[in-house]
Design goal:
This protein is an alpha/beta fold.
Length: 542
């Protein structure tokens, strides 16, 4: 059986890293005996014509996609179009959005045959050999589908107890060079599950309240494999990485014992960290930690069932700084019962911490308590347009605040940060900026160019050269390619040319000569070398 796994588009501002969930899904299908191809539109342009060509080439029997709420509409449309192009396909979707909106999804998108609910690997292993036989689907736990117009949801699937039994994510199926050029860190998980009942989060229901951990040795084995494949930086994506101190320390000690040197970051809760563990993380290469802080008003934190206090936040951020870590705090606005005063409390508190921080707007995703029990809160949800669930604009109101009020508050914060950014950009162009600030400006420019190269298929579209471009006295192919691309994009020609030369030197792109000229292309795997800005780009770019 052949299975195509779709990686749907995702906005640049959301930092699209190599897709961890897609790679776990692909590995599960491979373990079940399928031949698998990842059809990746995260770092390449999506068109119906391209999808048709890829399906015609691979000839899959089944096709699946995962998504979050933000990119669900685009992912669902791709699956729909695949079904129209190849009606014989068995089509599937999984992920947090459809897990909590399965029936609506199936009825709205008739081109989707079934939904995989919750943690998917065990379900995929059981389902794959039964995909051709629709009558057998009832025997598979953890799926939903329509049968003669009637909604069917099978028995829930228990959480996977032994995470070490799962195959490693199938990153070998990605076009590594594209992600290497993009420069975001590779995410890994060291455990699953969350016991905390925060009302704005899907995690507890998606992966269970029981926390399950991977063997530290296997975690570091995966880290070594990622580094060996050409990625220089890793992000530990667990919400609770630092919660089980002995295991966290075991992972760090394993890194130190093997002498592995690389940069990494992690998420953590402020009520689970301690100074000794944070210092050990720093010795093992961790240089940044991010806390979900949500609010600077204790009453709001209690309402969110966050399980933390403002004093815990002060201690945890102080310990992170003492350990030598860059500390970032994530706050939300538009929370139930929010007022202008509670938002101002948050701003005052955030400023008092002396850390990097930013704001997200509350997005009441399907499956969250705040959405399912919204009548119990001082909150009104204003739209079910899923494309607006990016946490970058207000889609709720409270009795005290309109969405415009909430956005005006964040706009005040953004104005201050924008003024600092504009000053940095002016200094950059004047040649008076140095250090990390200069690298940050350069990283943002480079990221914007790189994302357009990838997301608009500019290398493929402008990389066909005839012999007329290659004669005596002709410009180098890198220069010609940069001129063609910048004529189309209007972006900085010198920087674009420099990046194309760098990507060629790193082995991310190359060209092959043929009888009619040459053709540029993205390679599958880059050389094991890194350009001078790759590490800082991953950390600071934008």
């Amino acid at each position: 059986m052949r299975v195509a796994v779709i990686c749907p588009p995702y906005p640049l501002e959301e930092s699209p890293a190599p897709p961890l969930g897609v790679c776990y899904v692909a590995a599960a299908f491979e373990t079940a005996g399928a031949e698998v191809k990842i059809v990746d539109y995260l770092v390449s342009r999506y068109t119906r014509e391209k999808l048709k060509a890829q399906l015609d080439f691979f000839q899959p029997d089944a096709l699946g996609s995962t998504s979050v709420t933000l990119n669900f509409p685009g992912a669902a449309e791709i699956v729909q179009e695949a079904k129209e192009l190849r009606p014989s396909l068995v089509t599937m979707m999984g992920g947090p959005h459809v897990s909590f909106d399965a029936e609506n999804t199936l009825r709205r998108y008739p081109g989707i045959d079934l939904i995989v609910i919750g943690e998917g690997e065990a379900t995929i292993r059981e389902l794959t050999p039964l995909l051709p036989d629709r009558r057998a689907w009832r025997r598979v736990k953890g799926i939903a589908y329509l049968e003669d117009g009637r909604y069917v949801q099978t028995e829930p699937r228990e959480p996977i107890q032994d995470l070490d039994s799962l195959p490693l994510p199938a990153r070998h199926l990605l076009n590594v060079s594209r992600y290497q050029a993009l420069g975001f860190p590779v995410s890994i998980i060291t455990g699953r599950g969350c016991p905390y009942p925060c009302i704005f989060c899907q995690g507890r229901r998606m992966v269970g309240k029981q926390v399950r951990y991977r063997d530290p040795v296997k975690v570091v084995d995966e880290i070594e494999a990622i580094l060996a494949s050409g990625f220089p930086r890793i992000n530990v994506a667990d919400d609770l990485f630092v919660s089980q101190k002995e295991r966290t320390r075991a992972v760090c000690q394993e890194i130190l014992d093997r002498g592995i040197q690389f940069g990494w970051s992690a998420f953590a809760r402020v009520n689970t960290v301690d100074l000794e563990t944070l210092k050990l993380m720093r010795r093992a290469g961790c240089d940044a930690i991010s806390y979900g802080l949500e609010s600077g008003n204790q009453e709001m934190l209690n309402r969110l069932r966050k399980g933390i206090t403002l004093d815990m936040v002060r201690r945890a951020t102080g310990m992170a700084k003492e350990a030598g870590l860059i500390c970032h705090g994530s706050f939300m606005v538009g929370l139930p019962g929010e007022t202008w005063q509670t938002m101002q409390d948050t701003e005052d508190f955030a400023e008092s911490l002396g850390i990097l921080y930013g704001y997200h707007f509350l997005a009441p995703f399907p499956g969250t308590t705040v959405r399912e029990e919204v009548g119990n809160y001082d909150l009104e949800i204003l739209t079910d347009d899923w494309t607006r669930y990016d946490a970058n604009s207000a889609i709720v109101r409270t009795s005290a605040l309109s969405p415009e009020d909430i956005e005006r508050f964040v706009a005040g914060y953004m104005k201050r940060t924008d003024l600092l950014w504009e000053e940095m950009v002016r200094d950059y162009h004047a040649g008076t900026i140095t250090g990390d600030a200069g690298l940050r400006v350069l990283g943002k420019y480079r990221m914007e160019i790189t994302f357009r190269l990838l997301n608009e298929d500019l290398i493929e579209r402008f990389g066909q050269f005839s012999n007329g471009n290659l004669g005596p006295g002709a410009k180098p192919p890198e220069s010609v390619l940069a001129e063609r691309i910048t004529t189309f994009t209007g972006q900085d020609r010198e920087m674009t040319a420099s990046m194309i030369k760098e990507f060629k030197g790193r082995g991310c792109i190359d060209y092959r000569k043929n009888g009619d000229g040459l053709t540029w292309f993205w390679t599958h795997s880059p050389k094991q070398t890194f350009g001078p800005f790759s590490l800082t780009q991953a950390r600071l770019g934008g």
